[in-house]
Structures
1.
Amino acid sequence: MEFPLYRPRRLRRSENLRRMVRETRLSVDQFIYPLFAVEGRGIRNPVKSMPGVFQLSVDELVKEAASVQELGIPAVLLFGLPDRKDECGSAAYAPDGIIQKTVMALKERLPELVVITDVCLCEYTSHGHCGLLQGERVDNDATLEVLAKVALSHARAGADLVAPSDMMDGRIGAVRAALDQNGYSDTAIMAYAAKYCSAFYGPFRDAAESAPRFGDRRAYQMDPANAVEAIREVALDIQEGADIVMVKPALAYLDVIRLVRDEFDRPLAAYNVSGEYSMIKAAAANGWLDGERVMLETLLAIRRAGADLIITYFAKDAARLLQSQRIGN
Ligand code: PBG
């Protein structure tokens, strides 16, 4: 069909017409909100590089989670900042560790809220790497045992999903086996399947105090140049028992999201990471961009690329905006 027979503008003439032919929709159902837990009481430390994001003590985090639930957001993703770190990250699997306490408090107060826990060692090791070291190298197979212990301790505390983000080979299988052998066959796994070694994590490492003390994560996280390799990574995690797979970061990797969406039939999450959030917040604060519109356009683009779920620090802002738009229409 050619002009003048076909005029695409006909269906763009009014908001109602546009609404009727819109291909992609954003809904609060798709959002997962990350939260950072610290020891103590009454603590709400602002994260400087992430306006609107705080490190929260358990009591404050529960309040925050209640407001997240109030906005209709179905799930939170928890990161923990322990008060002590050691070589092997043992605070990560302590029964009374920061995440374990937070999960128990959330499950007691807000039993319906889906609680997802980050399973990694970088916040808990003194060297800041995501696994156990042998010299300056992260020892893959030794790390698997610890990760399985961490995941199991989260499941025991009541986590609905565990989310391994360490990028060790074989970790999904190790975590699945540990959960199943201990009676947690209903605890689901969201695998950070294609996680790239990205500079967009910069602000997160302030929030989680998890920057490596030496070197970088290139020897375990994916090379940003690779897309086909993402298919192999996702295939492995699915074989090993992942229930939800993830691509991370989102914005500079929309092609990878599309590739994974077309190749696999599992629910797909995308992580709209800290740097993606902070860039928009900073530009908006300078008056250089319309922060709200860019936020919605970004989230919509991640959905259009094929993500079913979006982990985003914008979840609350976006939920509020979607709510007001619904009332406005
Ligand atoms: C590692 C982890 C990281 C993020 C989530 N889990 C950081 C890293 O790999 O260095 C980054 C999230 C973000 O930037 O928002 N446990």
2.
Amino acid sequence: MAEELQNYRDTRQEFFANISHELRTPITYLEGYSKVIKDRLYSTEEERDQYLDVLHQEAKRLQHLVDDLFELSKMEEGKVSLSLEWIDLAEVIDNAVQKVQLKASDKGLILRASLNRSTAWVHGDGLRMEQVILNLLENSVRYTEQGEISITLGQTESYVFVAVKDTGIGISEDELPYVFERFYRVEKSRSRQHGGTGLGLSIAKKLIELQGGEIFVSSKLGEGTTFEIRFKLEEQGGSI
Ligand code: ADP
């Protein structure tokens, strides 16, 4: 296993093989279940509704995948246009938290925000920043069955940070270095069942780097995961 991970190489060929695989799976479901419905191979209305649910989920997955791929290809070509301005991360986090609140409470999870509202503003793209933070929060909700998710905004002498911490399933030490790789999914079937594409974190990392920041992860299997984004103060034009 460790050796297999060591040998993990993100080649172009592998990239396309991955895309084909990711597209083929939902398409197979769409084909199969629509045929079942078309041929009326169900015995109750409920059964039919279940199949329709699968169709709906798989169509959504395809949409999500195509959106992510489009985003990734724009970034690879350097075609992402960021609109940079001085942004207040507390405000960005407030918006993201508001959006994910319902998903968290639906799962019975506590979502806690602990924000130092006097941290330095950072030079970034507010919408992209929100997209990344939302992605981290959504992942936390997705991979946590009980407990809490907390988001912290703070500042040290040298950087401003946003940390998203959960009490979820965690990621093993072996797999941790690969979570930012395109299409990398820990425990593939479980993530797929959660609707993931394995692209979210690679996009998040690129977006953060384009804004001059860095992203880190630490995790303990069975205990939880923390993602942290940092923006160095000196690289932020000496803002207060
Ligand atoms: P996905 O769309 O599959 O969630 P990501 O790129 O967002 O893809 O994440 C890559 C993998 O990292 C996921 O498949 C999941 O296994 C793991 N992961 C991401 N966030 C968490 C988290 N908060 N807790 C546990 N595992 C996580």
